[in-house]
Amino acid sequence: MRMVDLIHKKQQNQELSQEEIEWIVQEFTKGTIPDYQMAAFNMATYFTGMTDQEVAALTLAMVNSGDQIDLSAIEGIKVDKHSTGGVGDTTTLILAPLVAACGVPVAKMSGRGLGHTGGTLDKLAAIPGFQCEFSQADFIDLVNQHQVAVVGQSGNLTPADKKLYALRDVTATVQSIPLIASSIMSKKIAAGADAIVLDVKVGDGAFMKSIEEAEQLARTMVRIGNQVGRKTLAVLSNMDQPLGNAIGNALEIHEAVQTLRGQGPKDLTDLCLILGAQMLMAAGKVTSLDEGQALLQEKIDKGEALAKFREFIEAQGGDASFIDQPDALGQAAHQIPFKAPRSGVVSHWVADLVGEAAMLLGAGRAVKEDVIDPQVGIILHAKVGDAVQEGDILATLYANQSQVDESLDRLNQALTIDDQAQEAPLIYEIIESA
Ligand code: URA
Ligand code: CA
């Protein structure tokens, strides 16, 4: 086989065979196909797309490029949840203990964030003593003992995806549905879950800006998962504005605690109940979404969800005293108010601009090497649909620097106040089959 012929074939919109796709992934991972040829192949794929067979073959070839985690030593149906990325998305921190409190094991491998705000592991790193590096055997022991563990990636999972994603990032080929779907699903499949619940974000702060695109991505991923015997479903959720009120690592830890107490922001709580109910259904714990939501709500109301969160933090070496004493996670040096420039109704809080405002304070990474400041971030006091008066405090910036003009600028750009606002739904659609 010659790579140049396969690039040409893809460029002509002809279907590649499974053998051809496997060969490309193997040779690229080994380094015998150079980046320039792979980049050309990605660009051809970007323009011509892939058939279902091609996407499935690409996904499996990437799974087979590295190790796969074997979770069979954990009893029960293991369900993973994945979000396609948004701003202020605190759902994993809430869902992991909440679903575990219902008796469904959550064995989660998580990443660090390269978005505007930190990933789940960055948020957990705000907790003194919290460990996320465990051997696979210890990871499995944690889940068997506590029904929940959230750890960093160990082992050599999907090296092909790592290499391919880095190349896509610098060749403007990230935004391709077959490439995104195979990238995400290869990692989920290699991580060993029996069932996968996907939260596909739609809107300004997401990869997918329209519902049509998000639907296509969701259907592609659901098809891949089900084809390889992992029950997969997707929820399409709104990411026009940040989720919840907190954006920032320690701030989101507190928001998770509030939500597990039943006192969290409405959008974040509602999304957690919906995703959690899907996870319980996928695990065979309940037979309807209503039953699932009722069980989750009961675990919150009885304090069992928060108790499980405490157990999870302590099991991974964290000092859980912040649950009762919020100051234990430290405070940023400055709190700066952001005020409403006029009266009216908040009609837009553009998620990625709010995310950038938080990143400029140090809550996220612009480049991989950036160091995150766990204490900084933003709390929103008004969301889309809220009526406000000129001069009302709409957000508080938590900063360790006194110069925050650039962040305030971003918030100004992010905000629109109109005479009235149309509230978009939080959930657009649930996709259970391709
Ligand atoms: N997230 C991934 O893991 N891969 C992509 O290609 C896009 C988002
Ligand atoms: Ca949040």
UniProtKB/TrEMBL annotation:
Names of required cofactors: K(+)
Pfam families to which the protein is assigned, alphabetical: Glycos_trans_3N, Glycos_transf_3, PYNP_C
Question: Which stretches make up the Pyrimidine nucleoside phosphorylase C-terminal domain?
Answer: 345-418
Q: What is its EC number?
A: 2.4.2.2
Alphabetical UniProt keywords: Glycosyltransferase, Transferase
Q: Which GO terms describe its cellular component?
A: cytosol
| Annotated InterPro entries | Glycosyl_Trfase_fam3, Glycosyl_Trfase_fam3_N_dom, Glycosyl_Trfase_fam3_N_dom_sf, Nuc_phospho_transferase, PYNP-like_C_sf, PYNP_C, Pyrmidine_PPas_bac/euk, Thymidine/pyrmidine_PPase
Q: Which reaction does it catalyse?
A: thymidine + phosphate = 2-deoxy-alpha-D-ribose 1-phosphate + thymine; 2'-deoxyuridine + phosphate = 2-deoxy-alpha-D-ribose 1-phosphate + uracil; uridine + phosphate = alpha-D-ribose 1-phosphate + uracil
The record, for Gene3D superfamilies, names: Nucleoside phosphorylase/phosphoribosyltransferase catalytic domain (3.40.1030.10), Pyrimidine nucleoside phosphorylase-like, C-terminal domain (3.90.1170.30), Transferase, Pyrimidine Nucleoside Phosphorylase, Chain C (1.20.970.10)
Q: Which GO terms describe its biological process?
A: pyrimidine nucleobase metabolic process; pyrimidine nucleoside metabolic process
Q: Which GO terms describe its molecular function?
A: 1,4-alpha-oligoglucan phosphorylase activity; thymidine phosphorylase activity
Tell me how this protein assembles: Homodimer.
Q: Tell me which family the UniProt entry assigns to this protein.
A: Belongs to the thymidine/pyrimidine-nucleoside phosphorylase family.
Q: What does this protein do?
A: Catalyzes phosphorolysis of the pyrimidine nucleosides uridine, thymidine and 2'-deoxyuridine with the formation of the corresponding pyrimidine base and ribose-1-phosphate.
Protein's UniProt name: Pyrimidine-nucleoside phosphorylase
